[in-house]
Amino acid sequence: MKALRLIANLGYGSRKQVALMFREGRVTDASGEILYADDRVEHGNVRLDGEPLDPPAGMLLMLHKPTQYTCSTRDPGAVVYDLLPPRFRRRSPQLASIGRLDRDTSGLLLMTDDGRLLHRITHPRAYLPKVYEVTLARDLRGDEAGVFASGRLMLASERQPLAPALLQVLDARRARLTLTEGRYHQARRMFAALGNHVESLHRCRIGALELGTLAPGQWRLLAAADLDRLFTPRGSAD
After folding, report:
1. The pLDDT of residue 237 is above 60
2. Domains of the chain, first to last
3. Where is the Pseudouridine synthase RsuA/RluA-like domain (predicted)?
4. pLDDT higher for 180 or 235?
5. Which of 39, 102, 104, 114 is labelled catalytic?
């Protein structure tokens, strides 16, 4: 790929802006040799201002989404892209969230520009366990774990019952919920169906990939080992 196109596709600027970087001598190879816009290059051998480029297409990152941020660029107010370097929003292919967390939900959010990976993770047959920490408005009544595990719970306006879900009670108003589906506002609607209200919802794990100590609003790139943890077989992460 030509050097100018490579850098522009990574979101560092428009083609005009990137062309100026070349004229200013800011783009070199790994040895410090000046590169030109029409040079054909390998991604790993290019430096901008002496620094390696962002990962090529296929990038996967983990973000600790705070509340009050949404995952859609069409929503008003703060969006998760505001927490990332501005150039990430200009990448081609486009960087997108893998599934969504609503404005009032915090925790682990994955983002990628790899369409095949996005499909692999979100496909219903993936059965990736997603673990949420839930705080409720009222005390648990005691039968929630059995109802959620039954595979018979129907939500309003749904045509199919929910897949069995695991509920681990932590105390009277806190629990850990593991889902393998991603229906609209599913966790909140499940508790609402049993007469309770979710006060706070936090996703802490997908597969065996944990949010860990990543602070709210922070992100990190994921490596092959992280991807392996993400696709840990169902059940071994629990």
Report:
1. no
2. 3-52 (3.10.290.10), 60-124+208-230 (3.30.70.580), 130-206 (3.30.70.1560)
3. 60-193
4. 180
5. 102
